[in-house]
């Protein structure tokens, strides 16, 4: 790390840190997550705990789950009681305004209620104690296809056309629309029922208005940092259109207090790491490197920026600094990108685990950076929604899997980058056992389940029986989890050892196939 004295001067000049750090411990951080999914809550809190941080979270009945919405009023009461004694407060505005991420897409909350909730969130510092206040929020996503309960019910029928409409309106707004596309735009405006369009746009407009209200917290200094995530977007979409306009407002605010980039589920982990760095008066220097081919210019699926833009924004957001000079770096973030620059789904047949020259060159880069005595975190974004099978096999075959500071390969590129970066920076404060446990969870989740078992169980059990991908009943859940345990063991034990796999349990916390919870027995 940069010398503590220099970091202290930098922090005082630019961030006005006032948290009183007790010599008896690292400090207390209050954390209100998006919802109770493992990546948003358990994995994030456990990562911090492994590095010695005390992170307090609200009672789980106040936090959104697959069964109930979050309770913004109870969450605020919990914060009001504890904030004066905390070093930092990290808050999801989606939880504090709507109840959670899903609720932000489906709510019917009156504008006056939302406005009052946004204003009291801006006034968190008035509760006393002067903690650091970090808030993260999301621009409502534009999914190509989705359905209830994570979207309004009409998405099952109209979701793909709602996306197409937003894509064409974005192109029209940018004056990049063809004559054929104009005809398609007119057709879609006639096809999509007016009440569907009105409901969708009214909610989006409300959410944007509330985000603009939160910007006042940056202007006034009531927020020490605001992180805005673009949830599941694309180069042309309604979310991209809204983000462009939001970007104009964000550009007028000081960059040391606000960042705006792709992703949602990693934002809490990013700000937890920022709080750790600020409370410790540390500014980690991070050197980023990429796979061959398109490399840093790759625009990943579900995102609208080149990956190197996302990486730099994430480094700034965790309270670090991107460096071009390897000798100055505290850590290397090595990003596995596809040579073509196209991030296909991890379920495609080409992700068959057979290493090619791309993976071999990546492993040589890993060797090089490790030989410079630099800790390396790997962000595996070659595929969306799962790991690069060949890369993971090479990591284990060459004995590198547990030499990494961190590994990530889940969901979107931003999700992966945020977790790999944050866990990697926390790793020096962890025991070897704690670090390896976090690595095991990521390999079992991102590689074994997401890239392999999820689609296998879906194809062999869920779809043949005509079960839903989401909303499994108790009997279906038991059968699916039993099959998942069996299949993960078959996939992972040959590389990770039977003993390692047997130390973990696997369940579907939201009664759907999209995510698994990996936990130690």
Task: Report what the structure shows.
With about 525 residues, the protein is α/β, with parallel strands linked by helices. About 50% of the residues lie in helices and about 15% in strands. The N terminus is likely disordered. α2 runs parallel beside α11, α7 packs antiparallel against α8 and α16 crosses α17. It has a six-stranded parallel beta sheet, with helices on both faces. The longest helix is centred in the C-terminal third of the chain and has 31 residues. It is globular, with a radius of gyration of 22 Å. It has 18 helices and 15 strands.
List the helices and strands and how they pair.
Blueprint: H1 4-15, E1 28-32, H2 42-50, E2 54-56, H3 72-82, E3 88-92, H4 93-97, H5 101-106, H6 111-122, E4 132-139, H7 155-173, H8 179-191, H9 194-220, E5 225-230, H10 238-251, E6 258-262, H11 267-279, E7 285-290, H12 307-317, E8 321-322, E9 331-336, E10 344-345, H13 357-371, E11 376-380, E12 383-384, H14 389-397, E13 406-408, H15 413-426, H16 432-462, H17 474-496, H18 498-502, E14 504-507, E15 517-520
Parallel strand pairs: 1-2, 1-3, 3-4, 4-5, 5-6, 7-8, 7-9, 9-11, 10-12, 11-13
Antiparallel strand pairs: 14-15
């Amino acid at each position: 790390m940069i010398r503590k004295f220099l970091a202290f001067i930098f922090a005082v000049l630019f961030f006005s840190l006032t948290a009183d750090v007790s010599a008896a411990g690292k400090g207390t951080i209050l954390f209100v997550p998006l919802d109770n999914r493992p990546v948003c809550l358990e994995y994030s809190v456990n990562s911090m705990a492994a590095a010695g941080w005390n992170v307090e979270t609200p009672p789980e009945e106040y936090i959104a789950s697959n069964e109930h919405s979050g309770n913004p009023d109870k969450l605020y009461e919990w914060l009001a009681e504890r904030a004066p004694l905390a070093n930092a407060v990290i808050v999801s505005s989606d939880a504090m305004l709507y109840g959670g991420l899903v609720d932000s897409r489906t709510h019917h909350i009156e504008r006056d209620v939302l406005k009052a909730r946004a204003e009291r969130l801006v006034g968190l510092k008035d509760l006393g104690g002067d903690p650091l206040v970090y808030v993260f929020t999301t621009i409502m996503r534009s999914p190509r296809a989705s359905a209830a309960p994570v979207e309004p019910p009409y998405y099952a029928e109209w979701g793909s056309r709602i996306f197409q409409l937003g894509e064409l309106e974005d192109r029209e707004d940018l004056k990049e629309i063809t004559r054929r596309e104009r005809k398609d735009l007119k057709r879609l405006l006639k096809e999509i029922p007016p009440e569907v369009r009105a409901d969708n746009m009214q909610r989006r407009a409300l959410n944007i208005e509330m985000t603009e209200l939160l910007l006042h917290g940056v202007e006034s200094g009531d927020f020490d940092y605001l992180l805005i995530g673009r949830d599941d977007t694309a180069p042309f979409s309604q979310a991209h259109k809204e983000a462009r306009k939001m970007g104009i407002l964000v550009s007028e605010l000081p960059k040391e207090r606000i960042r705006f980039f792709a992703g949602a589920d990693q934002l809490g982990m990013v700000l937890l790491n920022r709080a750790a760095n600020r409370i410790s008066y540390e500014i980690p220097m991070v050197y980023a490197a990429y796979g061959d081919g398109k490399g840093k210019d790759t625009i990943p699926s579900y995102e609208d920026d080149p990956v190197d833009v996302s990486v730099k924004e994430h480094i700034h957001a965790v309270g670090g600094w991107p460096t071009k000079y390897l000798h100055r770096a505290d850590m290397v973030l090595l990003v596995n990108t596809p040579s073509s620059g196209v991030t296909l789904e991890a379920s495609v047949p080409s992700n068959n685990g057979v290493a090619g020259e791309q993976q071999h060159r990546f492993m040589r880069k890993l060797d090089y950076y490790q030989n410079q005595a630099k800790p390396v975190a790997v962000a595996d974004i070659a595929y969306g929604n799962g790991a690069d099978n060949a890369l993971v096999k090479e990591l284990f075959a060459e004995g590198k899997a547990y030499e990494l500071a961190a590994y990530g390969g889940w969901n979107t590129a931003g999700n992966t980058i945020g977790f790999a970066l944050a866990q990697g920076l926390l790793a020096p404060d962890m025991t070897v056992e704690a670090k390896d446990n976090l690595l095991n969870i990521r390999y079992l989740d991102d590689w074994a389940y997401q890239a392999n078992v999820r689609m296998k169980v879906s194809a062999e059990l869920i779809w043949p029986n005509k079960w839903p991908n989401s909303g499994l009943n108790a009997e279906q859940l038991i059968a699916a989890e039993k099959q998942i345990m069996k299949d993960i063991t078959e996939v992972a034990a040959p590389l990770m050892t039977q003993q390692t796999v047997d130390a973990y349990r696997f369940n579907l916390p939201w009664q759907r196939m999209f995510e698994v919870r990996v936990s130690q027995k």
